[in-house]
């Protein structure tokens, strides 16, 4: 435990330069019996199947394809645990809202996500990703309300900021916050995997969530 704690602070001390040297997917799980047996803090990532979760992970850890991006939405069907510098896990959960997935399959994914989020003691925060270009979907709103109901720290990340003019950022941000009934105590980050906009802010929010839990 002490070693992993040291790894964590080493990671955060280097955050300004933020060059991650070690990052690997360690397991794809579908049930608690398959979760990693460690005390490392975990940050989950949730969002629609085409919102850019894989690109978000790859940008934060300076990799091109550790988390596989796909032209086929709905491809992630398991809880994918990524070990970062032997210090924490990113947990990529199945994307929601993909119409071509059967209702039965969507229900199964939903139960898998709910079980993980509500029972995993190592979970420190959930990064809820939305597309800045559009109003949050019904599923986006449900996810945010779900996290607030269970009092789980949430970091809202609005992806694809490079796809709209900078002059419209405030307008789109305000629309998203209104739809979500956004809690001003939560963190909201504009993000682009293309320009790296919001990368540093995302790491700061992750660091804050972990330190807050350990305080």
From TrEMBL:
<dbReference type="InterPro" id="IPR005225">
    <property type="entry name" value="Small_GTP-bd"/>
</dbReference>
<comment type="similarity">
    <text>Belongs to the TRAFAC class TrmE-Era-EngA-EngB-Septin-like GTPase superfamily. EngB GTPase family.</text>
</comment>
<keyword id="KW-0717">Septation</keyword>
<protein>
    <recommendedName>
        <fullName>Probable GTP-binding protein EngB</fullName>
    </recommendedName>
</protein>
<dbReference type="GO" id="GO:0046872">
    <property type="term" value="F:metal ion binding"/>
</dbReference>
<keyword id="KW-0342">GTP-binding</keyword>
<feature type="domain" description="EngB-type G">
    <location>
        <begin position="39"/>
        <end position="212"/>
    </location>
</feature>
<keyword id="KW-0131">Cell cycle</keyword>
<keyword id="KW-0132">Cell division</keyword>
<dbReference type="Pfam" id="PF01926">
    <property type="entry name" value="MMR_HSR1"/>
</dbReference>
<dbReference type="GO" id="GO:0000917">
    <property type="term" value="P:division septum assembly"/>
</dbReference>
<dbReference type="InterPro" id="IPR019987">
    <property type="entry name" value="GTP-bd_ribosome_bio_YsxC"/>
</dbReference>
<comment type="function">
    <text>Necessary for normal cell division and for the maintenance of normal septation.</text>
</comment>
<dbReference type="GO" id="GO:0005829">
    <property type="term" value="C:cytosol"/>
</dbReference>
<keyword id="KW-0479">Metal-binding</keyword>
<dbReference type="InterPro" id="IPR030393">
    <property type="entry name" value="G_ENGB_dom"/>
</dbReference>
<dbReference type="GO" id="GO:0005525">
    <property type="term" value="F:GTP binding"/>
</dbReference>
<dbReference type="InterPro" id="IPR027417">
    <property type="entry name" value="P-loop_NTPase"/>
</dbReference>
<keyword id="KW-0547">Nucleotide-binding</keyword>
<keyword id="KW-0460">Magnesium</keyword>
<dbReference type="InterPro" id="IPR006073">
    <property type="entry name" value="GTP-bd"/>
</dbReference>
